[in-house]
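Quick question, first post here. What does this chain look like in 3D?
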Amino acid sequence: MKPKVFIDGREGTTGLQIYDRLAEREDIELLQIAGDKRKDAAERRKLLNEADLVFLCLPDAAAVEAVSLIENGNTRVIDCSTAHRTAEGWAYGFPELHGQREKIAAAKRVANPGCHATGFISIVRPLVDLGLLGRDALLSCFSLTGYSGGGKKMIAKYEDPDRNPHLDSPCLYSLLQRHKHLPEMRTLCGLDHPPVFTPIVDDYYKGMAAAVPFHLSQLKAGATLRALCGAFREYYGDQPVIRTREDPLCGDLDVAAELYGNVFSGKDCLSIVLAGNSERFTVTALFDNLGKGASGAAVQNMNLMLGFEETKGLAL
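> Answer (accepted):
Ran it through. Tokens below.
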């Protein structure tokens, strides 16, 4: 029998992207809610309890409420909101972290990672796990995203023909260091301190470049940039979704490089690029904020939880 899947909040950006990835699949049954009953608690409760797996594509408070409406021990949940990412009893939906794939496959409750957090964690967690970076490290991160990351309201603002001319240029935001992804960035990397985090939204639809700058002196004595390339390859191995690249740069090179935030637009993979010289360098995660940063990751987690091939339905 095909597993039944329900997307609660299908009308939002993430929900629509998940629906598009699942609509043509013949190995699941997508449960639908009538348009006039989207906010009907009784109808939602019925579908939430009928489904084998539920995606919650809702604001935090609504996601918490949705979980409370599930009255059986069988329905499995992937929450795409911020509400449960550091909550006890929830597996963090980042399969490439060591030991995490098995936890996700066995979990009843999985919290889908935040987009900016995905980039930061993909870079910092391996360095901590491999003993190359201390947990007391004082780090910074700047992360460039397309405007789709802000959901329907931001998309409408950027696509308004009479929009504010300031939107023609990049916007640094959340400058008070209270961004909602900071708790998971710190917790999942096991850091004593959250990073100084600068998210940036720009005038393109989707794609993300999350970069963490380093002085080589911040890392374990004797580390080199080329050795770090090897460390990332060791950590991620033959992962199907995360890749490490030796181009444009990987080594003690004083050569300029250019990276563009939208290079993986429409893809569900993530690529890690190291670039710099023998003293200073950046490690950048390139991916689609709606792909590995949201809906692609959610489908990857669903595949693991329902026993499907992990990358089925993903664009790699």
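The two ends are 28 Å apart (CA to CA).
The domain at 4-113+293-306 is CATH 3.40.50.720 (Rossmann fold).
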